[in-house]
Amino acid sequence: MKKKMLIILASFALNGILSVGCGNAGEDTVENAGLAAGESTDQVPETQHDEIADSVHSNPAGNKEEEHSVTDKDNVLESLTGEYEYLSDDGSGELTIEKTSCGYDISDYESESSWRFLADSSNIEAMENNKIYIKYPEQVFSDGTTVFGYYILEHGTDEINVYYGKSTFEETEFLYRATKTAQAARNADLETTVEELLDSFIDGSISAVDSADLTSTFYITDLNMDSEGWDAYSIGEKVDLDNDGENELIICGPYGGMYLDAHDGRVYKFAAGEGTALILSYTYYNGDVWIMYSNMSSAGFEFYHIEKFEGADNLVAEMNFGEEFDIYHAEEEDGVKYTLNGNEISYDEYTALCSKIFAAEVSTN
Question: On the CB side of 236, how many CA atoms lie within 13 Å of its CA?
Fold first, then answer.
């Protein structure tokens, strides 16, 4: 990965000039930047897939009326996200599709020290049926002339056939078949399983288990979902609340509702609010998600407890802080004592901590 990062940094001379912002073509140029795919050290193998090639060429990019909408395009790319391996002259190559803040990066590394292309969403000309058409700038000359390479990515279940041509999409030939890596496939299966379990709870097909009492189960129909009263529940977002890369389900409701996790084939109640002494919410602190419980049950004090998990069953950090009126501080300006994990701290220290935690707090009432 370190070598790949060096490759990406070395390619900025081309990509930075060709792009403005997130994938918009710029006007500046650089002479002979990049390496044409036809000049790659990985020679294009003799195709033994003529019947596949005919099917790819039967509907090339250009029919704009049949292009995917932006939403459909993103959905397809998201489903393909991961790493795909293939055999190259240098050993093992890797095709990667990765989501970024600007869309999706599609990269082809022939080896750890060379790349065929480093494309992104802006290079996609069209998406039709199960094919992605990429027009990639391989050389840019000082007079503005650009030499493009034409790639077609034909995707199936856990594999992508890649075709390349120097002139048009119609003239592309089979280049290689890349198969999704075993770990990426397992992660995709796991994500699907978690999503399916949570969705099955939502539609009432399965029950949830209270992680504090495994004999206690409940269905979504046991919750007050139809009322407009203060004690009503509603389906919230799916968010990674325990920092394990998988989403949990938020059921919004009284005192912050409850958070549900799915693993080992079941849905579990991961956290829940319980009255004014345990109001549930979550926040982002130091780059991680923390579960927060707020105690505002009595006048004159506020206490907070936050927990960081790495997996629903793995509590890795917790913190207690709060403020309360103290007779021993009565002569001071506000008569309030501020504490962090049982130790008294100054007002400035307390407000600095609270400003970070509460600024990113998300209420789930």
Answer: 24
Q: Residue 301 corresponds to which tokens in the numbers above? A: 């004090």
Indicate if the pLDDT at residue 359 is higher than 50. Answer: yes
For the beta carbon of residue 339, count every other beta carbon within 10 angstroms. Answer: 16
Alpha-carbon distance 258 to 271, whole Å? Answer: 6
Range from 81-90, 185-194, 337-346, 356-365 carrying the lowest mean pLDDT: 185-194
In the chain, the amino acid numbered 205 is: S
Asked if residue 336 has pLDDT above 60, the reply is yes
Query: Who wins on pLDDT, 235 or 300?
Result: 235
Strand pairing partners for 153? 132, 162
* Number of neighbours of residue 269 by Cβ within 10 angstroms: 19
Over residues 351-358, the mean pLDDT reads: 96
Beta-sheet pairing, 114-120 with 124-128: unpaired
At a CB cut-off of 8 Å and minimum separation 6, what does 307 contact?
290, 291, 315, 317, 318
Contacts of 153 (CB under 8 A, 6+ apart): 106, 131, 132, 134, 160, 161, 162
**362-363, strands of its sheet edge to edge:** 343-345, 336-340, 315-325, 301-309, 288-295, 279-285, 362-363
pLDDT score of 73? 85
With 0.90 as the threshold, say if the pTM is over it.
Answer: no
What angle is formed at CA 317 by the lines to CA 240 and CA 184, rounded to 5 degrees? 35
Q: For residue 186, count other CB atoms closer than 10 A to its CB.
A: 11
d(CA 120, CA 132): 12
Instruction: List all residues 6 or more positions away from 149 whose beta carbon is below 8 Å from its beta carbon.
Output: 36, 37, 38, 117, 135, 136, 138, 164, 165, 166
Max CA distance (Å), the chain: 89
- Run of H or E residues at 266: strand 266-272
**Backbone φ, ψ for residue 308 (5° rounding):** -115, 130
Mean pLDDT estimate for the chain:
81
Rounded distance, CA 257 to CA 306, Å?
16
The stretch 94-112 carries a mean pLDDT of: 90
34-40 CB contacts, 8 Å cutoff, 24+ apart: 34/137, 34/138, 34/139, 34/140, 35/138, 36/138, 36/139, 36/147, 36/149, 36/166, 37/116, 37/117, 37/136, 37/138, 37/149, 37/151, 37/164, 37/166, 38/149, 38/164, 38/166, 40/110, 40/114, 40/116
